[in-house]
Specification:
Layout: H1 16-25, E1 29-33, H2 37-45, E2 50-53, H3 57-60, H4 72-83, E3 90-94, H5 103-115, E4 121-125, H6 130-139, E5 144-149, H7 155-158, H8 168-184, E6 188-192, H9 196-205, E7 209-213, E8 221-224, H10 226-229, H11 251-263
Parallel strand pairs: 1-2, 1-8, 2-3, 3-4, 4-5, 5-6, 6-7, 7-8
Helix pairs in contact: 2-4, 5-6, 6-8, 8-9
C-alpha cells in the first residue's frame, strides 16, 4: 500500500505489463481522470496508479451535455498537459468521438496522443467492429484500454446514461464483448455502469485487468472523474461517485483517501453499485 510516508519519486513507475502483474497479485489498480499538470501531479503524489485523460473533459471542463463535442486537438492538448505533471503514473488517453471510425483514422489519432500527448495507452469504446481497430493498434505497438457497458460516446443510441447488462441476454453479450476485446489485444478494460455481479463474472473470466466505474467492488481497480470525487461537479453526480473532499483539508488528502479506500476494498460500497 502507498502512504504519505513514501515519496512519490521513490515509487516504481507503473507500466503496461504492471497491470497484469497487479491483477495477478490481487493489488487493486487506482485510476483517476486528470486534465492538467497540477491535478496530475497531486494525484500521483497521493498514490494514483493510472491517470486517464478522459473525453469527460467535455462535461466537466467545457460544460457540454456529453463527450461528443470533444476534438482530437483538445485531447492531445490536455494529454500533453497531464503528461508534464507525471513521473510514475501510467497515462491513458481517450480517442474522442469518431476518431476511431476505422483502423486508419484510429492509428492517426493514437499516433498523435502518444507522440504529442505523451500517452502510454489509448482508450476506445465498444466491441464488434472496434475489435479490428484494437488489433490494428496493438499490432503497431500502441497499447489499448477497451471500454464496455455504458459507453458515453453512444449516448444517443443508448437513449441516455443508463445501466447496461441488466437483462440476461444483454449480460451475455457484454461478457462475449469482453472476451472479444481481450482477444483483440486490449490490455485493460473499463466497465462502466454494469451490475456488480456481471462485472465480477467478467473480471474472473479475463486475464487482463478490469477497471470499474459503477461496476461494483470486485473489478481489479476503480476509476472516477476527479471532479466528481472532489464534489465540485455541478448538478447531480452519478450514483457510483463519492465526495472524498468532504471533511478533509486538501485535495491531496481527498485523493489519497480515495486511493486507500479502493486498495482496501472500502470503495465502492453497496450504495455506489447496481
Amino acid at each position: 500500500m502507498y502512504s504519505e510516508s513514501v515519496p512519490a519519486a521513490s515509487r516504481k513507475p507503473i507500466t503496461v505489463p504492471s497491470l497484469r502483474s497487479m491483477k495477478g497479485e490481487g493489488r487493486k489498480i487506482v485510476m483517476l481522470t486528470a486534465y492538467d499538470a497540477s491535478f496530475a501531479a497531486r494525484s500521483e503524489e497521493a498514490g494514483v496508479d493510472v491517470m486517464l485523460v478522459g473525453d469527460s473533459l467535455g462535461n466537466v471542463i467545457q460544460g457540454h451535455a456529453s463527450t461528443l463535442p470533444v476534438t482530437l486537438d483538445q485531447m492531445v492538448y490536455h494529454s500533453a498537459a497531464v503528461a508534464r505533471g507525471l513521473s510514475r503514473s501510467l497515462l491513458v488517453a481517450d480517442l474522442p468521438f469518431m476518431s476511431d471510425r476505422d483502423p486508419a483514422h484510429a492509428m492517426d489519432a493514437a499516433a498523435r496522443l502518444v507522440a504529442e500527448g505523451g500517452a502510454a495507452m489509448v482508450k476506445l469504446e465498444g466491441a464488434g467492429h472496434v475489435c479490428e481497430t484494437i488489433n490494428a493498434l496493438v499490432q503497431r505497438n500502441v497499447p489499448v484500454c477497451a471500454h464496455l457497458g455504458l459507453t458515453p460516446q453512444s449516448v444517443h443510441r443508448l437513449g441516455g446514461y443508463r445501466v447496461q447488462g441488466r437483462e440476461d441476454e444483454a449480460a451475455e453479450k457484454l461478457l462475449a464483448d469482453a472476451h472479444a476485446v481481450a482477444a483483440a489485444g486490449a490490455e485493460l478494460l473499463v466497465l462502466e455502469a454494469v451490475p456488480a455481479r456481471l462485472a465480477e463474472r467478467i473480471t474472473k473470466a479475463l486475464d487482463i485487468a478490469t477497471i470499474g466505474i459503477g461496476a461494483g467492488p470486485q473489478t481489479d481497480g476503480q476509476v472516477l472523474v476527479i471532479y466528481d470525487m472532489l464534489g465540485i461537479t455541478p448538478g447531480k453526480r452519478p450514483k457510483f461517485s463519492k465526495d472524498f473532499l468532504a471533511g478533509r483539508g486538501s485535495v491531496v488528502e481527498a485523493i489519497a483517501a480515495y486511493a486507500q479506500d479502493v486498495r482496501e476494498g472500502r470503495f465502492p460500497g453497496p450504495e455506489h453499485q447496481y
